[in-house]
Amino acid sequence: MTIDDFKTQEEYVSQMEHGALLNPRIDSTFKALFTQPTPESRAALHSFLEAATERKIKKYELKANDSPVGFDGQRGVTYDILCQFEDGLTADIEMQASDQEYDYGKRAEYQVARLETTYLQKGDDWEKAPIVYQISVLNFNYKCKSSKNNGNSKGSKNPVSRYAMRTNDGRELSNTLNIIFIELPKAKGLEKTLETNTPLENWAIFLKLADNPKKQDLIQKLTNKEAGLMNAQKSLSNISANKDYWIAQYRQEIRERDYRSGLSAAERRGLQQGIQQGIQQGLQQGIQQGIQQGLQQGIQQGLLQGTKNAALANARNLLSMHLGTIEQISQACGLSVEEVRALAEKLGE
Fold it and tell me: pTM score, two decimals?
């Protein structure tokens, strides 16, 4: 069911009374899933971080979500979930529910760069620059702006893409800045390969389908297979019994719907304006072209008529002075014999 199936907030929230689960693709729910002070939530986040970074993590701690501002006027950065590991590595986890019509790749690059500058202290050796991760869960297919996108070409079906600074021939620079995109729509192709999927690919399936009542058998297979996903399912069930999270999710879904509706309305207005402008421009161009063609034709016709009149005048003079036969005068003036004969008959009258 979608937000449009509910008339009021109360009707939407009442789903919790029937055992419905919150949507983990909604930003507020996604954050709550991983940041509750419960063993299940902490274990779920630990599992997700290990799957995303592909490294073992002994322990982590949640950090403040706002990045420090370095100078007046600098754009602020707020992270959805910010974690720092025991060895100084840092990860920002973002949930993007819909495509916001801007270059999300540039946003991710900016976020990971700001993350890198947050934890290196003045006087620290460059070797202490921490490895940082920007992990984005995208509920849409990312349209990569570069043709050389390291395995995530336009036709790629894999939901997981890993980006780092490399040369054109694939040599890595320092492995310091890392961006990971998890495109949930592409997870559908992995539902039949749970045993051979990577841990992060199975996380993508979970986040895509966890709240779908028709897919609970598949979710059960996932949670039986991996303890981290089982803890995520328990955490999702726990917060789904909390009315405040349903209200927060309802409000965010309303904002998302209004945003999409605004985009659609703007597209329709743009299309209508484009059609009207096209028609008007077409009419104006048609009129201008018609005027120009008419002038050109008029000038040509005027020149031709002027030449003809001069030829007739010359023929009239020759006929009145009896200087040549009709055939001779016809050739001399560039007129037909019939035209000269008709002119001679008029003079004879």
Answer: 0.70
Range of the structural domain that residue 193 is part of? 21-239
Q: Evaluate whether residue 8 is within a structural domain.
A: no
The first and second tokens of residue 106, run together, are 């540039």
Phi-psi region of 69 (alpha: psi -120 to 50; beta: other; left: phi over 0): beta
Distances in Å between the Cα of 329 and the Cα atoms of 116, 320, 321 are: 99, 11, 11
Q: Cα(53)–Cα(91) distance, rounded to whole angstroms? A: 9
Alpha carbon distance 46, 68 (integer Å): 25
Q: Treating both helix axes as pointing N-terminal to C-terminal, what angle do 27-35 and 39-53 enclose, rounded to 10 degrees?
A: 110
DSSP state of 259: H
pLDDT in tens, 17-45: 999 999 999 999 999 999 999 999 999 99
Residue 111 placed within a domain: yes
For residue 103, being part of any structural domain is answered with: yes
Percent of the chain as helix, strand, coil, to the nearest 5? 55, 10, 35
With contact defined as beta carbons under 8 Å apart, do 56 and 50 qualify? Answer: yes
Answer yes or no: is 101 within a domain. yes
- Rounded CA gap, 37 and 84, in Å? 17
User: Domains in the chain: how many in total?
Assistant: 1
